[in-house]
Structures are given as C-alpha cells and as structure tokens.
Amino acid sequence: MAEAQKRLVREYETIYLLKADTPDEQVEEIKERLRAVVTREGGKVIRFTNQGKRKTAFAIGKNPRALYMHCLYIGGSGLVAELERNLKMIDTVVKFQSIRLADDVDFEARQVEQDIKVAPPEEDAARPREERSGEFGERSDGEAFEAPAEIGED
Fold first, then answer.
1. How, if at all, do strands 44-60 and 116-117 pair?
2. What CATH code is assigned to 8-109?
3. Are 71 and 79 a contacting pair, CB within 8 Å?
4. Is this model's pTM higher than 0.85 or not?
5. Which of 30, 45, 120, 133 could make an S-S bridge to 52, C-beta 3.0–4.6 Å?
C-alpha cells in the first residue's frame, strides 16, 4: 500500500505549419506559448522540432511554402482541444493536425528532451544547362537524331 500510484496519461503529437516568412523570434514566442498551455493543462512538452521551410503539397493561402513545426507532448484528454484552440488564435499558423500516439504513458517516467532544429532538405533549384549535360537523355553534339522506322516499312 506504500507504493505510489502511477499517473498514466496519453502521448500526442501536433504538427503545425507557420507562414514561411515568420521571423525566428516569433517562432520562439509561439513555442513558449504552446509550452505554457500544455503545462497549464497538466501536461508536459517532450520536444519541439523545427523542420524548416519546405514546399507544401498544395498552396495554402496562395503560399506554396511553409515552416513545419512538430510538438511531442503528454497529458490528459482535454489538452489537445485547448492546444488546438490556441493554435487557431495565432495568425501565423496556417494548418495543424494532432494525433494520439500512445495510451497509458507514465507521466513521471517520460523525460523532457532538448528542442531540435532539423536542416531543411536541399532545394531542387534549376541548374544551368551546362551542369545538366548527360542527364535526362540529352544528346551530345556529335550524336544525330534517328527517326523511328515507319510501321509497315521493310
């Protein structure tokens, strides 16, 4: 009877997209605001991951790029609704999605990790024609074009 009750909570992750032109100071303010919301609701933020500016699958509000952020946290069932309510009030947040990762996570055993900033992927920038020689089936200068044989000709 002397053993302490384990506090079991759920583990969630939220991915949210910020406008691509959001300054770093404002990104930090948003992170601290969300961290305060999670703490106030009795949860704990495990880690924030800044995944950098990336091209979106489709234009969001006429912007083809966005700053991708990932938040991993644990807490009770009402925490996600409050976090999403706060995300809706921030003007620079253009999209967000939350999912439950696990049930029955021990609150005290889950340790807080350091925030991560991931380098964005290299852009597929258009290269000059000289750098692309030999790619995409391009012909060299001495190579002639052969017309395909007509069907029915022998």
1. parallel
2. 3.30.70.60
3. no
4. no
5. 120
